[in-house]
Predict the structure of Glucose-6-phosphate 1-dehydrogenase.
Amino acid sequence: MIFGITGDLARKMTFRSLYRLERRGLLTCPIVGVALDDWSADTLREHARAAIEATGEAVDDQVFARFAARLSMVSGDFADAATYGKVAEAIKGRSNPVFYLEIPPSLFGRVVDGLAGAGLTDNARVVVEKPFGHDLSSAKALNDQLSAHLQEWQIYRIDHFLGKEPAMDIRYIRFSNSIIEPLWNRDRIEAVQITMAENFGVEDRGHFYDPVGALRDVVQNHLLQLIGLIASEPSSGGPDGFRDKRVELFKSIRPADPEHYVRGQYAGYLEIDGVAPNSQTETFTALKLHIDNWRWSGVPFFIRAGKALPVRATEIRVIFKRPPELPFLPKIDEQNELIFRIDPNPGVDLVLQAKESGVDASRAVNLCLVFADEMAAAPEPYERLLGDAMHGDSSQFIREDGVEETWRIVEPLLESPPPVQIYQPGSWGPPGADALVAGYPAWRQPWLPAHQ
């Protein structure tokens, strides 16, 4: 059951993901849309096909016919109890429904109340989209609305970064290769850099973006979840085996210090429709975090994220300490690095030092694996996550205690933000971002695909 099936997210992501699940033979249930729009089932099917084709996905007629046969529609106002009576009738005789709320968070409580009033929540799973609040107190208030009728095991909070195949690869590379574990600590690692760069601006999304900003949009959720993957230590299976350890890791991260926080805004942002005059919303953010546990104490984790930067790239870069100076080797200026590229063209790269041919000098060499070159095509993030939700696997979803811990980490930055610094589109943000890493390796240029 998809509430908001006529909306933007369904058009861009959901229909394509469900179609791909159908093509792989993994879709086994009816799909019922719920929206205020008075659409027939045929209208919904036509919209679904157009949406899938608009994403660039090649549509197989036989696959789509199977998919279309699953689609039906319930029209009604989310505030009207009669709507939930129609929902109950549409799924009569079915068990374990998954209610996917592709609607603003302000409507979550209303819809869950309506579902509970119709007796539909007892064995249900409810999938909700971010944002999970806009600060710690609002996140708790939102959870209170959901938990009035649902237990925690029933709530599936989506962060699509956790559904990205290269994010899942981090765990396998860390724990399936015995050569890595002895190096994965404060004795061998000098710093960790996480970059999420976008080479486009806010464009026509000013009304959405201006109340949010980069810290809330991508750091509190996506990029802190990447730290959870790179630094936590799962020790048992099952969904909570992974989530327990991510939360344990978040609890050991100090609250972020506004003295080590840089905010930027690209020139021209204020001219965008929907942006408030004299807005202080950041389109670029850079910060330093510390993890107070035995493995990571003293290793800074640097995050930078922004719009209108030179390239589009998301990566985690683990920078190892320099080797000692030895009399039989020239001085080595560069350091070993292990890079996990999340986007684009995901892969992993180990940067080593080797002899330069013909001279007594070293140079960096890359031992890189691009996943698409060696492995089968990966499922899309929403494809993976929606499939998991339908099968009751919550391991790649976020628990409430994880939400609250990540808000706790960034809360000081929300309460005492420094002023924004203006930067030029196409640059790497304001100069303060470089000062943030003083004393540690400078920000690295992202590892990009060869064709870029």
Q: What stands out?
A: The first strand starts at residue 2 and ends at 3. DSSP finds 14 helices and 15 strands in the chain.
